Amino acid sequence: MKKILLFLSMAAVVLTFTACNSNDNNGVQDIEIPGVTLDGDVDCCSAEEALQVYKFLQTVTIIPELSIKDIDDKYNVFAYRSADFHKGYNEIFFVATKKKNGNYVKDFDITSITPLMHMSAMSMYHSTPVSAGVETFDDKPTAVKRGWISFIMSTSGKDTWALSYTARVLKSEASINDVEQVVNPLPDGQDWVKSFKVGNETFFISLVNPTEYKTGTNAVKAYISKKSAKITEPYQLASEKFTVEILPTMPDMGNHSSPDNAAFAKQDDGSYLGTLNLTMTGLWRIHLTVKDANGNIVAGGDDLDSGFSSLYLDVTI
User: What DSSP assignment string belongs to 155-209?
Assistant: First the structure.
């Protein structure tokens, strides 16, 4: 019996050793990524990180005209999006690569994201809400950064949007300036960004990714931004603290509502989180009542002919 146990133990050791070293190099399986040479550059991603970045980039679309090539003959910066730009909240992603190996640089930043609308008929320019900066997100490596832009209007006739930003990669810097971008209107039954006034100040509330809403309970997210005193400067997150009560109704179904909703409340990162319960598919009108830090109603909360707040967002699921 002892001989049998000894034999089984030795077999297990051999099997473990073989499994750890099969098709690998010093215990690490070889990873091949198109366009990337894994040469141990400390400024760049490890093999596992680079593979994670590469897989993510297969889920988004590059924006060639917003990408910067040949920064100091060392680096490239590429911009990506998950869909064509549209009115309301849009995410934009960035990666930087080294030209010599194609690998993704970990230490880079994107600043001064500046969308600018030229309203030619009125000979004026204005900006729109943007994220405070770019950041890593979910479980992605630091070599992928995400920001967002909430376009308050779509491209229309001679009214056009242009986008600028500055990229820093290690100690090098370059910029994209006034690159025209098309911003599409939303389909009927969708309205994901609205303005409201508090005193002399104008604020914008932007729903985050409402295309992901479904029937039942939804954890919902929004941002509230403040119009800049100089309207050509990007509208940053509002420092004011609000609570936004939400009441969903279905205007095509006699304005019936749904229970178990929770107001948007401000989070430490500046976002607002709430709960939205949608009991069926169709057009939902999300009526908003905005309260200040003292609980006073400062926007919405009034009554239309329907009996609901005139400040609302539309979502169709």
Answer: -BTTEEEEEEEEEEETTEEEEEEEEEE--BPPPTT-B-EEEEEETTEEEEEEES-
Mean pLDDT, residues 167-188 taken together: 98
pTM of the model: 0.89
What's the token pair of residue 119?
């309203």
59 within 8 A of 52, measured Cβ to Cβ = no
* 193-316 and 47-181 share a CATH fold: yes
Q: Quick check: 163 and 115 in contact, CB under 8 A?
A: yes
Q: Residue 106: which of 145, 159, 73, 56 has the closest Cα?
A: 145
Q: What tens digit of pLDDT does each residue of 50-78 get?
A: 999 999 999 999 999 999 999 999 999 99
Supply the mean pLDDT for the chain: 92
Tell the CATH topology of 193-316: Immunoglobulin-like (2.60.40)
Quick check: 81 and 90 in contact, CB under 8 A? yes
| Domain residue spans of the chain | 47-181, 193-316
23: DSSP letter: T
Closest CA to 89 of 147, 171, 167, 144: 147
What tens digit of pLDDT does each residue of 136-161 get? 999 999 999 999 999 999 999 899 99
Side chain identity, residue 233: E
